[in-house]
Design goal:
- Helices cover 29% and strands 17% of the residues.
- The chain has 782 residues and is an alpha/beta fold.
- The strands form 9 sheets. A 6-stranded mixed β-sheet has the order 13-18-17-16-14-15, sandwiched between helices. Strands 20-29-28-23-24 form a 5-stranded mixed β-sheet, with no helix packed on it.
- A hairpin with a 2-residue loop joins strand 10 and strand 11.
- The protein starts with a helix and ends with a strand.
- Bound molecules: 2-acetamido-2-deoxy-beta-D-glucopyranose (6 copies).
- One 2-acetamido-2-deoxy-beta-D-glucopyranose binds next to loops.
- Keywords: Glycoprotein, Glycosidase, Hydrolase, Secreted, Signal.
Length: 782
């Protein structure tokens, strides 16, 4: 052997061994369940058996201590069966986030696509977008799992209705309307959970899950910390009526239509009973809505039953109440610590623990966790290249473009014309700070560019001053520098609003005004700028910017919320007319005077007898800064009704035998409404009808437009909403062109409300269908 050959051999030998060594040391799943040769012969590893058979078999093999060790988000290993530990708690609200222990960016994957905060994507009113975001996050989740840096079970989406503008987590939700929240939840969950293989969705494989999504927080949860109230012991007093037509619909949809595999019960009590002990509500989800999956408590929400709420007299009773109500797993260690003694004291039985384990293992089985080596499974190919991919980052950019809302645009101040802007001044503490882009539950974004970074790409001569040292803006000491650059610039953009120091988990706001001296900053700049100022607002919660709305020195207002990692680019594209804005506010913006309403008051409906103005566009009767659905475009749209019925007869769907009863019950009076319970079984479908509209773009720019169809019901019982969204559709219309849009209306769902005992009823008489300025009357008759 000559020297050269020897050297080559040695080198290749070294190379070979080091590759082997790398492979073994970096295998993220050295011990997967059902690993051959010792652990693959258990019946629970047999993929020919059904999920139920496999779960039953696994539970039957466990000792009581082993069972109890599974009742925490951090489930212990069961070494004798070859089952490694499992972390149930991963987060993915708008991209993979490391708020839970399941996701870690400390490894070969150090970032993931950060989509806009949910309230921004919601403002796009685009179901396709929502579904695609869910699917993209799922691909990144599987890829991270393969890399050993994430779990398979995620605690998103947050589908509580954004009831009060001060709520620190309103930003995490799809807004205030139950229909929008429901549809967002369904699209996200389907996109996230559905099994995809070479981009083809397996329709016949309902049971298998790509990842598991969780509808949270069940239920009537939307207060963090306000006044003397804290989420850990807040008792939400909710009427049956509000429960049925505001708080519950998103959860029912998430389960029934989205087929979510997890439900999380919340910290708060609902009408005196802690949510995680509400057996009636949790069982309704399983029995009536067909929930198949596991129920987790929010973190330590079983502990709070006893420790904070004093609802039980002992820890054991708290554990027993939760398990008996239907909770399968506790985020935290409380159940692991107290279940044994709860069993010993006869508070709960081993059979009830078995039920919990069956639900838990069934979800793990559906995820393929017991199907063998993850390196050989369906998703084995997903890896680093699937995270922060150009398509995902483009989708994040698209979501921000579609969700950003133009609130004011006097005299077509925007868009700016690139070649006519010689210099820009950007002012505001958020304008050059990456940490404010994503809102809560943000992981490590793929790119780190601020608004300022992006605007510089459009206009080289762009200067920046923070104006305030931070968002709280307690001092005007730094106004001078900002005023100076504003005076010297052709156009001025002030970025004001909120960040997570003002609104976040465990923190509600007390004011709706801009924080600290921010308003003074805006007006000081507006006073010296050559041209009207462009005001950009950040934050998930509404702010009272009446002063800016009415000030002619402020030409335009743009809400960007928390636009995610590509938000700066999306904003720049919109300001310079490369993208025509079409987002619309998914929540009402109330004036500061709304803060006299107690945040703890859960009533949706207005009550004039006690000066209560009601909540959300459906019931609120007071003045508003910007209404639900506000959003301008650089072009104009015009609607026409193409077809819609004027009369709908309901007699056919009421069994003959009930006709007399219904009429008798009402005596002489005319029948005012029908209860859904009075309808023939499955008759709702036959009542469905279509309405068709045309939308013309009468302006000079192509653009997308969100059609929002409302119904106004006859006021034949108490608690009828002012109006109610019954359909929405985002359509793209080229300049001077027209498109058609069709809505399918299900009267049982869309033309109904809950009566004061929480029963769904359809009011009889004239319902107005309202689209923009158009109004179409439809008579419901019996
Ligand atoms: C798996 O289950 C099927 C169906 O019951 C059975 O026929 C087969 O023998 C089982 N395989 C193993 C390896 O036990
Ligand atoms: C990151 O991982 C390494 C290796 O596993 C570990 O030593 C280090 O403590 C981790 N760092 C953090 C911040 O978790
Ligand atoms: C908080 O409690 C104090 C003392 O009981 C009471 O004076 C105050 O009005 C309460 N605040 C709110 C917002 O309920
Ligand atoms: C707690 O103990 C008190 C006093 O013994 C009793 O009145 C009450 O019913 C108990 N509460 C529960 C939930 O068992
Ligand atoms: C960005 O904002 C965060 C949160 O307000 C703050 O902690 C941080 O100091 C800011 N960074 C810069 C560079 O101003
Ligand atoms: C809805 O979102 C999808 C995905 O981003 C996009 O392709 C489509 O153009 C959007 N529709 C409209 C009308 O903007």
């Amino acid at each position: 052997m000559n020297l050269l050959l020897l050297q080559l051999t040695l080198i290749s030998l070294l190379f070979f061994t080091s590759t082997i060594a790398d492979k073994t040391s970096s295998d993220p799943h050295p011990n997967f369940p059902c690993k051959p040769p010792h652990h693959n012969s258990h019946p629970f590893c047999n993929i020919s058996l059904s999920t139920t058979q496999r779960a039953l078999s696994l539970v039957s093999l466990l000792t009581l201590p082993e069972k109890i060790s599974q009742l925490s988000n951090t489930a212990a290993s069961i070494p004798r069966l070859g089952i490694p530990p499992y972390e149930w708690w991963s987060e993915s609200l708008h991209g993979l986030a490391d708020n839970g222990p399941g996701v870690s960016f400390n490894g070969s994957i150090s970032s993931a696509t950060s989509f806009p905060q949910v309230i921004v994507s919601a403002a796009a009113f685009n179901r396709t977008l929502w579904r695609e975001i869910g699917a993209a996050v799922a691909v990144e989740g599987r890829a991270m799992y393969n890399g050993g840096q994430a779990g398979l079970t995620y605690w998103a989406p947050n589908i509580n209705v954004f009831r009060d503008p001060r709520w620190g987590r309103g930003q995490e939700t799809p807004g205030e309307d139950p229909l929008v929240v429901s549809e967002y939840g369904v699209e996200f969950v389907k996109g996230f959970q559905e099994v995809k293989e070479t981009s083809q969705v397996f329709k016949n494989n309902d049971e298998k899950l790509m990842l598991s999504a969780c509808c949270k927080h069940f239920t009537a949860y939307d207060l963090e910390k306000w006044g003397n109230f804290s989420r850990y012991d807040f008792n939400a007093v909710v009427t049956e009526q509000d429960m049925e037509d505001t708080y519950q619909p998103p959860f029912e949809s998430c389960i029934r239509d989205g087929k979510a595999s997890c439900l999380m019960c919340s910290y708060n009590a609902v009408n005196g009973v802690p949510a995680c002990a509400r057996e009636d509500l949790l069982q309704k989800a399983r029995v009536e809505w067909g929930f198949k999956g596991y129920i987790t408590s929010d973190c330590d929400a079983v502990a709070t039953i006893f420790d904070y709420q004093g609802y039980t007299n002992s820890s054991e009773e708290a554990v027993a109440d939760a398990i008996k109500a239907g909770v399968d797993i506790n985020c935290g260690t409380y159940m692991v610590r107290h279940t044994k003694s709860a069993i010993d004291k006869g508070k709960v039985s081993e059979e009830q623990i078995d039920r919990a384990l069956l639900n838990l293992f069934a979800v793990q089985l559906r995820l393929g966790l017991f199907d063998g080596n993850p390196r050989e499974g369906r998703y084995a190919k997903l890896g680093t290249n699937d995270i922060c991919s150009s398509s995902h980052r483009e989708l994040a950019l698209e979501a921000a473009r579609q969700g950003i809302v133009l609130l004011k645009n006097d005299h077509k101040h925007l868009p700016l014309k690139k070649n006519q802007v010689s210099s820009l001044a950007i002012i505001g503490p958020m304008a050059n700070n990456i940490s404010n882009m994503g809102g809560t539950y943000t992981g490590k974004p793929c790119q780190r560019k601020t608004i300022f970074n992006e605007l510089v790409e459009y206009v080289k001569k762009t200067s920046y001053a923070s104006g305030c040292s931070d968002v709280a803006c307690d001092s005007s000491n730094e106004f001078g520098e900002a005023v100076a650059i504003a005076k010297g610039a052709d156009y001025v953009i002030v970025v004001a609003g909120l960040d997570l120091t003002q609104e976040t988990e465990d923190k509600d706001r007390v004011s709706l005004s801009l924080p600290g001296k921010q308003k003074d900053l805006v007006t000081s700049i507006a006073a010296v700028s050559k041209k009207p100022v462009i005001l950009v607002l950040t934050g998930g919660g509404p702010v009272d910017v009446t002063f800016a709305k009415t000030d002619p020195r402020i030409g335009s207002i743009v809400w960007i919320g928390y636009p995610g990692e590509t938000g700066g680019q999306a904003l720049a594209e919109i300001l310079f007319g490369d993208f025509n804005p079409g987002g619309r506010l998914p929540m009402t913006w109330y004036p500061q005077s709304f803060t006299k309403v107690a945040m703890s008051d859960m009533h949706m409906r207005a009550d004039s007898s006690r000066g209560y103005p009601g909540r959300t566009y459906r019931f609120y009767t007071g003045p508003q800064v910007y209404g639900f659905g506000t959003g301008l475009s650089y072009t104009d749209f015009d609607y026409k009704v193409l077809s819609a019925p004027t009369r709908l007869g309901l007699s056919e769907v009421i069994p003959q035998s009930s006709h007399k009863k219904l009429l008798l019950q009402n005596g002489e009076e005319q029948l005012r409404y029908l209860e859904l319970d009075d309808l023939e079984v499955n008759s709702c479908e036959s009542l469905r009808f279509n309405v068709r509209f045309s939308v013309s773009n009468t302006g000079e720019m192509d653009g997308s437009h969100v059609l929002m169809l409302y119904s106004r019901m006859p006021q034949v019982l108490s608690g009828v909403p002012e109006k109610q969204l019954i359909g929405f559709e985002r359509v793209h219309v080229r300049s001077s062109e027209m498109v058609e849009a069709e809505f399918v209306i299900d009267p049982c769902k869309h033309l109904s409300l809950a009566n004061d005992v929480g029963k769904r009823v359809i009011p009889l008489g004239v319902h107005d269908l309202v689209l923009g300025d158009l109004q179409h009357s439809l008579s419901l008759e019996f």
